[in-house]
Amino acid sequence: MIGSDTVEAFREHFGTEPDLLIRSPGRVNLIGEHTDYNDGFVLPLAIERALWIALRSRPDDTVRMWSGMGDQRAEFSLSALTHSGGWSDYVQGVANELQRTGKELRGWEGAILSDIPTGAGLSSSAALELAAARAFSEVSPFVWDPVEMAVIGQRAENNWVGMKCGIMDQLICAAGHQDQALLIDCRALTWTPAAVPSAAIVVVLDTSTRRELVGSAYNERVTACEEAAAVFGVAALRDLDWDTLDEGRYRLEPVAFRRARHVVLENERTLAMANALNRRDLTEAGELMQASHDSMRDDFEISSAALDAMVEAAMASPGCYGARMTGGGFGGSCVALIAADRVDAFVSETLARYQAAIATKQL
Ligand code: ADP
Ligand code: MG
Asked: Residue 131: helix, strand or coil by DSSP?
């Protein structure tokens, strides 16, 4: 159990007992990709993989951490935050944003262990941010609020790390519940639960390909969406419906039009998917996932040969209602909706097909 391992790691690295153990889950997004920073809708769920911190408060303003990821230590002072260029930036960014809201922070020392693969589209970064926010809230005189802390985590990633991500990862990490996806309205910061029917299982398929997101095409997509919204005179692409976009398509360059089309139709698909899950219509849910993948491959252009091969392998395997790439894109994982009684066959066949495909295509 990784929680008890984290306590053990704390004893080993800090020579004493921890006061507290924090668990912060990873997430997978069923549908609604690159819609969050367009004020739109997303449908993620928290997963059983998580990042843990065993910690002890400190009487001064020092934060001292050890992470099992590469057996690394990091230390900083709350009165002299710096851009380290490493993973401690996620924690320093959270400290900075908390301080900017006027909160008085205390120091802590903690051991971090996680079984969320990094850069796999399962949001290890938000898990680290929210775990850090929780750590500060426990040792300092302020109260944890899931929405406020999600916003703090997002701002940390936007302003300190330089990744213009939306609110999805942080909000599902802070507010997710077992056995439920959340349909999140990323403008209102409200959500309604959608239960995955018990006849289906959500399977995550990691291609093990990685692409560093910061400074990459992700931020370019954010800019393209902002520009398209400005052309139509709306605050965000959330405010554009398909008919208006279609009628005004001549106002955008062809690439910009395709980017906007993805976002506008993905918002519709996300609402339809939550509805389909609530009606237990797994066939429709699977079709929506498929349409989402096609849109990300052709219109938003954030898929990759490995992700496409994984989706094809999944779709050809037993019991698959639908599959799509998930997360920021350009590498990482796919998510699939599978008939519960076919999962074992699905996993072994998909793996075999994917390995055969990447060997042939030399991915
Ligand atoms: P994702 O969120 O999809 O996993 P990101 O590139 O957004 O990928 O975030 C990954 C980064 O988060 C890592 O490079 C590292 O800086 C930080 N991180 C994640 N997990 C840990 C951990 N257990 N210990 C230290 N840093 C971590
Ligand atoms: Mg991330």
From this structure: helix
Give the predicted TM-score (pTM) of the model.
0.96
308-363 pLDDT, tens digit per residue, is: 999 999 999 999 999 999 999 999 999 999 999 999 999 999 999 999 999 887 66
Find the DSSP H helices in 37-112: 88-100
Q: Show the tokens assigned to 180.
A: 């439920």
Q: Give the closest residue (by CA) to ligand 1 atom 6.
A: 119
**Does position 110 have pLDDT exceeding 70, yes or no?**
yes
Q: Per residue in 310-321, is it b (16+ CB within 10 Å) or e — as a string?
A: bbbbbbebebbb
Q: DSSP character for 59?
A: S
The catalytic position among 36, 39, 89, 169 is: 169
Strand partners, 77: 62, 80
Q: What is the mean pLDDT of residues 145-156?
A: 98
Between the CA of 314 and the centroid of ligand 2 the distance, in Å, is 24
* 169 classed as catalytic: yes
Structure tokens at 116: 């969320």
How many angstroms does the Cα of residue 86 sit away from the middle of ligand 1? 10
Pocket test for ligand 1, best of 5, 124, 325 (most atoms within 8 A of CB): 124
Closest by Cα among 352, 47, 302 to 177: 47
Please give the Cα distance from 13 to 158 (Å, whole number): 31
Minimal-distance CA residue to ligand 1 atom 20 = 124
Question: Using one digit for the tens of pLDDT, what is the confidence trace for 65-96?
Answer: 999 999 999 999 999 999 999 999 999 999 99
pLDDT (tens digit per residue) in 252-278: 999 999 999 999 999 999 999 999 999
Gap from CA of 126 to ligand 2 centroid (Å) = 6
Rounded to a whole number of angstroms, the distance between the first and last alpha carbons of the chain is 35
